[in-house]
Amino acid sequence: MWRSALAPAFAGIMFLSVTPPLFGQHAAQQPWVFQAFAARKQPSGSPLFGGMSLAGFHRAWGLRVGGGVDLHTETSAVPAVACGPYGYGCRSFAQDHTNVVLDTWSVNVDLLFEPARVVPGLRPVLLGFSPYGFVGIGGYGVHLVDDPDTSIATWSYGVGAHHNVYGPLGLQAEARWLSPIETNNRFNGLRHNPEYRVGLAVSFGGPHHAKTPAPNAPPGAPDESAVRFASAVLDMAESYLNTPYLHGGAIPSTGFDAAGFVQYVFGQAGVSLPRTARDIAKMGENVPLRIGALRPGDLVFFAGNHKNPDHVAIYAGHDRIIHSTKSGGGVRYDVLGSGDRGGWFADHLVSARRIVPRAQPSGKKPADDKLDPPDLAPQPMGGPR
């Protein structure tokens, strides 16, 4: 019985171990999520589980494996003997001894669907919450006093929501309904009440950007300070993946537009930049638009009219850019020249600049009607995240 219950968890772990190469670049846009949670079924006297889970996403779909245990303490009387000096006056008594006991355990492998990853504007409308649904299989077991341990295979379904708190950190809450797959009188009440789970989630697994030599450095002799600066910029940018797009937005708590995102990221790295793409395009050093000239950390500029920059992104290497994009639903990676969407950006690329790691004049904040308009690129397959 234990083998039948643990088999789904083992299968999920094996699937997750081979998922990243299968997902390819999409895995960079759909980060992995690790969660530590507490769960309890109704009524409140049911076991309180503590557990962990790991989920990997491909667009709106994800696979998650996780499990929890309920531990409690048992106190038993252990015979003991106490004697006086020189072994005289011995007496017997009972001494309390406390043990930690595994009372109940649960494992699950779930298929998730999170529509806010592909439905345009859904997450901002829901105040930053990203709802999801799931179905799964797993196992449930109990430790019985003076009786063999009992376990059973289960299937389940439920709903939940994720909310980003800061950077990769988020909160999750969900309700799950469990049902035994096979008949067992000990578990007849398992399906009657939902299990509620709350947890702290950490997103990770974005793309790894390449480190390259600094401007004007000869091959084989990179400028380490410029490499560190570009790495810091890309690490900071990557930490805000999935932050929603907001026209005029320049802070992570509400959202970014393209120039607001670049200004904020470089500001966190110690460099002040102007507020619009056309003004940022006057900063730093010009970079030729030829193969091999762009380096990670450079800024690339796009123009809807093929002339005046109105959108800016950070080059991440290997033709990838990271930016806040209206058509993509927020901060995400795109690949220049890949598909209709990447082709649009490649066709509207007008210039590139290399920002050196020193302060730049930020200028005054422009009026709202002077801010950059949203990009007009084709939406990603399935819509923006």
Largest sheet: 8 strands, antiparallel, barrel
CATH topology of the largest domain: Porin
CATH architecture group name of the largest domain: Beta Barrel
Q: Oligomeric form of this entry? A: single chain
Shape: elongated
Task: State the CATH class of the largest domain.
Answer: Mainly Beta
Number of domains: 2
Helix content: 10-25%
Strand content: 35-45%
Averaged pLDDT, please? 78
- Coarse structural class: alpha+beta
The number of helical runs is 7
As a whole number of angstroms, the C-alpha radius of gyration is 28 Å
Topology:
Layout: H1 2-23, H2 26-29, E1 32-41, E2 48-58, E3 61-82, E4 91-113, H3 122-125, E5 129-142, E6 150-166, E7 169-180, E8 195-204, H4 224-238, E9 250-251, E10 255-256, H5 258-268, H6 277-280, E11 285-286, E12 299-302, E13 311-317, E14 320-325, E15 330-335, H7 339-347, E16 349-354
Describe the structure.
This protein is of the alpha+beta class. The protein has two domains: 2-73 and 101-204, Porin, CATH 2.40.160; 224-370, Alpha-Beta Complex (endopeptidase fold (from Nostoc punctiforme)). 18% of the residues lie in helices and 40% in strands. It has seven helices and 16 strands. The chain has helices at 2-23, 26-29, 122-125, 224-238, 258-268, 277-280, 339-347; strands spanning 32-41, 48-58, 61-82, 91-113, 129-142, 150-166, 169-180, 195-204, 250-251, 255-256, 285-286, 299-302, 311-317, 320-325, 330-335, 349-354. The strands form three sheets. An eight-stranded antiparallel beta barrel has the order 1-2-3-4-5-6-7-8. It has a six-stranded antiparallel β-sheet with strand order 11-16-12-13-14-15. α4 (224-238) packs across α5. The longest helix is centred in the N-terminal third of the chain and has 22 residues, at 2-23. The model is unreliable at 1-30 and 207-222 (pLDDT under 50).
